[in-house]
């Protein structure tokens, strides 16, 4: 028995270490965002220092960062909205009204994830240049819709499939039409998982880098691109400012952490019962 | 009952049309461009047949990029799965349900961080002079440790960040999978005095074979999208030691020479290789 309890103790220590590694780097970055340059560039890492808001003030005061934030919000938001409006009904149809193409549709949607982003970005750059839409938010929204729509469909099919069939049958007996069943029965019942799927699609486009890098040069640049460019401000790397912009970039996805973990929980719980 | 037949079409058609147009147009376009000699500075190209493809195979950097990409896949998928299964079992075995849920929430943090953020966080942590991760080494030996500038360690160091993001997240999924298993086989095995590792090695993990394979499959696809990590942390360097296929295609097409058609040829080859590989794996595994 003692062997087992020693093992359990060691296991807990490893888990603690893993939890520390999961959170500490982000915590350290947040801490550095409040430091003056002298407190970051020290031979020994400093935990106690006089905090400053200068870094955040500088970052938020720069037009490029502000524009990037605005572009990111608009492009991610619009692409997710379109993805949800088109994707949720499509996922429902695939899950509830299967036909001989349903399997192929699911594979097609998943196969869009195989496409190397460079392979999509190079021709799109040429196309948007020819249409004179290059470096616009519109072209980025359309491109991102490919990402959000595929993701929403992919994650929502199982969510709709988990809605108990009996509930829908009962609604049909009560005289509900198929559209009413979707809007009034299936959508509300599956809403928790569906919100998770939509949130996941948002996090995915918010974090997207390569396509935005290749499809924008100045006007439509998103926040990840702006953040990555801050390193090239000069020979003296502005570490405090860099850390502040990393924190700013990470806040929106982190706001969804509860929603995403809720999605994980419901995805696995229902399947078992 | 007329409505009953319209719903699948009304609901499916718009999404499928949008997806097909958005996916097919660039794909066809990429193939067309790869048979031309387009450059960034010269938008109109001439048809050159297979020249770009033939040139690729005598390109030393292309061959290097294939090797780097393959090692990247093997390292990141392998270690992510190892860590996911290991930590997942520990979560299931060693802590109460309450602690489990708290740890699970913390383990999701890295994967939600934008890759650009994660890359900066760790790039700074690995800074030879001011980094927190390299500080212990510096304090003990008095020497700075520069992992990202060393061709031997750079790829592994970037891979560590990828595994940090995905391994911890996948361990939460493995935990959820273990929680869905029926308890009886576990109890039976314990009654037979099976050791803990035997319970998992012979009972639990074989029961989870299919979902674990699909997890590895998802990670394989996801590992192909490491561009942002590598771009921020090393830009393919030092030399070409971390230059993956997408990094090389990007620098050929945009940074160095603007050879869009050449880069497009590379992208098309990647597209064919990944589609073939993943379709075969998908049909084989019947996930």
Automatic annotation (TrEMBL), chain A:
SUPFAM superfamilies, per database record: MetI-like (SSF161098)
Chain segments annotated as transmembrane: 73-95, 107-129, 141-161, 181-206, 241-264
Source organism superkingdom: Bacteria
Record flagged with keyword Mitochondrion: no
Keywords: Cell membrane, Membrane, Transmembrane, Transmembrane helix, Transport
Gene Ontology CC: plasma membrane
Membrane topology recorded in Swiss-Prot or TrEMBL: Multi-pass membrane protein
Domain ABC transmembrane type-1, residue spans: 69-260
Subcellular location: Cell membrane
Family: Belongs to the binding-protein-dependent transport system permease family.
Name listed for the protein in its UniProt record: ABC transporter permease subunit
Species this protein is from: Sinorhizobium terangae
């Amino acid at each position: 028995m003692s062997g087992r309890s020693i093992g359990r103790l060691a296991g807990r220590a490893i888990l603690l270490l893993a939890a520390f590694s999961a959170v500490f780097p982000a915590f350290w970055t947040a801490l550095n965002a409040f430091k003056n340059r002298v407190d970051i560039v020290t031979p020994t890492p400093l935990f106690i220092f006089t905090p400053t808001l200068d870094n955040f003030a500088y970052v938020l005061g720069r037009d490029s960062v502000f524009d990037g934030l605005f572009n990111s919000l608009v492009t991610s938001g619009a692409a997710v909205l379109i993805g949800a409006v088109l994707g949720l009904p499509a996922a429902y149809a695939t899950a509830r009204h299967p036909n001989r193409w349903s399997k192929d549709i699911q594979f097609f949607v998943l196969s869009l994830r195989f496409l190397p982003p460079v392979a999509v970005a190079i021709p799109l750059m040429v196309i948007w240049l020819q249409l004179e839409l290059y470096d616009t938010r519109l072209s980025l929204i359309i491109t991102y819709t490919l990402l959000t729509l595929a993701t929403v469909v992919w994650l929502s099919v199982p969510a709709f499939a988990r809605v108990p069939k009996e509930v829908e049958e009962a609604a049909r007996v009560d005289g509900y039409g198929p559209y009413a069943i979707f809007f009034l029965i299936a959508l509300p019942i599956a809403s928790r998982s569906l919100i998770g799927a939509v949130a996941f699609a948002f996090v995915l486009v918010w974090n997207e880098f390569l396509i935005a890098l290749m499809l924008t040069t100045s006007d439509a640049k998103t926040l990840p691109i702006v953040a990555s460019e801050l390193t090239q401000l000069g020979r003296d790397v502005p570490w405090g400012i860099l850390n502040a912009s990393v924190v700013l970039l990470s806040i929106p996805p982190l706001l969804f952490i509860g929603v995403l973990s809720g999605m994980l929980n419901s995805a696995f719980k229902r399947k078992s019962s | 009952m007329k409505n009953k037949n319209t719903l699948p079409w009304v609901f499916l058609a718009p999404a499928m049309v949008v997806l097909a147009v958005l996916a097919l147009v660039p794909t066809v376009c990429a193939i067309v461009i790869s048979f031309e000699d387009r450059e960034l500075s010269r938008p109109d190209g001439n048809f050159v047949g297979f020249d770009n493809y033939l040139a690729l195979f005598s390109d030393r950097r292309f061959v290097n990029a294939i090797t780097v990409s393959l090692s990247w896949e093997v390292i990141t998928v392998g270690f992510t799965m190892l860590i996911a299964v290991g930590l997942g079992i520990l979560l299931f075995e060693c802590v109460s349900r309450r602690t489990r849920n708290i740890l699970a929430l913390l383990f999701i943090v890295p994967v939600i961080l934008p890759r650009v953020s994660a890359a900066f966080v760790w790039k700074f942590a690995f800074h030879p002079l001011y980094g927190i991760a390299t500080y212990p080494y510096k304090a003990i030996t008095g020497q700075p440790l520069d992992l990202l500038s060393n061709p031997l360690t750079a790829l592994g160091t970037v891979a560590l960040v990828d595994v940090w993001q995905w391994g911890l997240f996948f361990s939460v999924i493995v935990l959820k999978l273990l929680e869905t298993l029926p308890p009886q086989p576990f109890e039976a095995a314990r009654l037979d005095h099976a050791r803990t590792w035997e319970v998992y090695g012979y009972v639990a993990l074989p029961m989870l074979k299919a979902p674990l394979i699909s997890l590895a499959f998802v990670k394989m696809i996801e590992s192909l999208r490491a561009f942002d990590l590598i771009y921020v942390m090393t830009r393919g360097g030092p030399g070409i030691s971390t230059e993956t296929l997408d990094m090389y295609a990007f620098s050929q097409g945009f940074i160095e020479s603007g050879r869009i058609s050449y880069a497009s040829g590379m992208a098309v080859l990647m597209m064919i290789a990944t589609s073939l590989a993943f379709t075969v794996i998908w049909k084989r595994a019947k996930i």
